[in-house]
């Protein structure tokens, strides 16, 4: 394998899935720069129609797309189908959001003139995509960027290049100009080069906090370039005065273990009233023990598949061991049922008595359990993180939710719903180490175009009424 060659393997089988070559950053940016102005000059209706054709292409190729996502990520086939559906739905959502968030406005002004508000595209936007939702999450940047009139250079994760290539092929098949959606294959070096390239006008990133913070530092001296960051979370789910223990257990399991815990909104910390701790944990433990963990196409359908690769599985195993060494008490150990493959069984560990709980995002099926004496203690523990993406309260007491909503430090605050599964019809983003106050999803239109305010009159009329000598 040459230095420029990329390989992708199926996590569930370790079979080779895809092989290709790393791309040329300069060449891809140059093509996008040559193409974007013509695309931007097209009427909005033209760009909208092209993206609606893209949705139809994806709809027609949905089964093949879902199969590829399942194979390359390891997620169950049913979950891969839901990802394809979100790709399709993103077009209509983005059209509606663009009309609402960037609508043209006219205001009356003195002397028969007017003030006009319109929006312009930035130019060329780079998109760095993650591996956990390799189609949905980059598509959530690409569609609104194209709709606004930008060109895009998209670098998928080196762990899911095949899905990235498939997604771009759907744009090209739909008639979106090939120069306006460029695929840059490669690893971290290509990603760094793209982010630092003078030819881009902005970067839209979804990934780890470590990478996002490095990008934030790099862009600090480049205020002329837009930077939108979505960087995950160490998300809490608090259970207080929630008498339906089974329903609570189901919501917790969905929050913590959907997608093998590889969601930025996954619940990482369960904070529970110590008075009802035992009953809830017993119910949750029984439910988790029934979860099917298997390859994507297995029958019966699995609840979750493997994590993305053996390196990730090894890191998670080491992290679980570190929690034990620091004083955590395992409730359900993190087991690897298939030698040589990155399957992990969902794990839970009580970290209440740890002197210092590490504030990190364990991107996998590990749930920390923390017992609290009072609801105020539970809120304080929920906020005991540098992250701030998602937080959930499970309670039948509305007053507690009012208190939780007012005090929880997160961009998504839910009540009796999972921490994950955010709506694309709403803004999506967090605070602290979870983002830089540029939420995506419905608000992606905000960072894909900038407002231009114009004072306008059909003819020039002006006078100076003070401060002049007599003629």
Automatic annotation (TrEMBL):
**What Gene Ontology molecular-function terms does this entry list?**
succinylglutamate-semialdehyde dehydrogenase activity
**Record's superkingdom?**
Bacteria
Q: Which Gene3D superfamilies match?
A: Aldehyde Dehydrogenase, Chain A, domain 1, Aldehyde Dehydrogenase, Chain A, domain 2
Entry annotation: catalytic residues:
230
The answer to whether UniProt assigns keyword Amino-acid biosynthesis to this entry is no
One example of a Gene Ontology biological process annotation: L-arginine catabolic process
Alphabetically sorted, this entry's keywords are: Arginine metabolism, NAD, Oxidoreductase
Classification via Pfam families: Aldedh
Q: Domain Aldehyde dehydrogenase, which positions?
A: 11-446
Matching InterPro entries, A to Z?
Answer: Ald_DH/histidinol_DH (IPR016161), Ald_DH_C (IPR016163), Ald_DH_CS_CYS (IPR016160), Ald_DH_CS_GLU (IPR029510), Ald_DH_N (IPR016162), Aldehyde_DH_dom (IPR015590), SuccinylGlu_semiald_DH_AstD (IPR017649)
Q: Which NCBIfam families match?
A: arg_catab_astD, PRK09457.1
Entry similarity comment:
Belongs to the aldehyde dehydrogenase family.
Name of the protein in question = N-succinylglutamate 5-semialdehyde dehydrogenase
From the broadest rank down, the organism's phylogenetic lineage runs: Bacteria, Pseudomonadati, Pseudomonadota, Alphaproteobacteria, Sphingomonadales
Which gene is the coding source of this polypeptide chain? astD
């Amino acid at each position: 394998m040459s230095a420029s060659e990329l390989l992708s393997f199926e996590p569930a089988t370790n079979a080779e899935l895809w092989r290709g070559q790393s791309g040329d950053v300069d060449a891809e940016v140059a093509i996008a720069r040559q193409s974007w102005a013509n695309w931007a000059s097209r009427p909005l209706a033209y760009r909208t129609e092209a993206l609606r054709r893209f949705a139809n292409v994806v709809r027609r190729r949905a089964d093949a797309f879902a199969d590829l996502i399942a194979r390359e990520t390891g997620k169950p086939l049913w979950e891969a189908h839901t990802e394809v559906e979100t790709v399709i739905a993103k077009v209509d959502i983005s059209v509606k959001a663009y009309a609402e968030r960037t609508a043209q406005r006219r205001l009356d002004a003195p002397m028969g003139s007017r003030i006009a508000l319109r929006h312009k595209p930035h130019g060329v936007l780079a998109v760095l995509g993650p591996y956990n939702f390799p189609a949905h999450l980059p598509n959530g940047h690409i569609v609104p960027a194209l709709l606004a009139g930008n060109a895009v250079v998209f670098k998928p994760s080196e762990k899911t290049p095949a899905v990235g290539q498939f997604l771009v092929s759907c744009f090209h098949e739909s008639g979106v100009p090939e120069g306006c959606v460029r695929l840059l294959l490669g690893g971290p070096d290509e990603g760094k080069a793209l982010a630092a390239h003078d030819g881009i006008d902005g970067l839209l990133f979804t990934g780890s906090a470590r990478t996002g913070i490095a990008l934030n530092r790099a862009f600090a001296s480049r205020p002329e370039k837009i930077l939108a960051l979505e960087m995950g979370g160490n998300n809490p789910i608090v259970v207080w005065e929630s008498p339906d223990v089974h329903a609570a257990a189901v919501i917790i399991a969905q929050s913590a273990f959907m997608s093998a815990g590889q969601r930025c909104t996954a619940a990482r910390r369960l904070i529970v009233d110590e008075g009802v701790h035992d009953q809830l944990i017993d119910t949750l433990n029984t439910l988790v023990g029934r979860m099917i963990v298997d390859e994507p196409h297995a029958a019966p359908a699995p609840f979750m598949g493997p994590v993305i690769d053996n390196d990730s599985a090894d890191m998670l195993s080491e992290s679980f061991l570190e929690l034990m060494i620091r004083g955590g008490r395992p409730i359900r150990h993190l087991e690897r049922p298939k030698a040589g493959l990155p399957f992990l069984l969902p794990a839970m560990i009580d970290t209440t008595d740890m002197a210092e709980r590490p504030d990190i995002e364990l991107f996998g099926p590990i749930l920390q359990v923390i017992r609290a004496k009072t609801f105020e203690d539970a809120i304080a523990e929920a906020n005991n993180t540098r992250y701030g993406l998602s937080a959930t309260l499970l309670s039948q007491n509305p007053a507690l939710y009012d208190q939780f909503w007012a005090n929880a430090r997160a961009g998504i605050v839910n009540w009796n719903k999972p921490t994950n599964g955010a709506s694309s019809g709403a803004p999506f983003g967090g605070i602290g180490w979870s983002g830089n106050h540029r939420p995506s999803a419905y608000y992606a239109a905000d960072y894909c175009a900038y407002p231009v305010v114009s004072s306008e009159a059909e003819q020039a009329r002006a006078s100076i009424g003070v401060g002049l000598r007599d003629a």
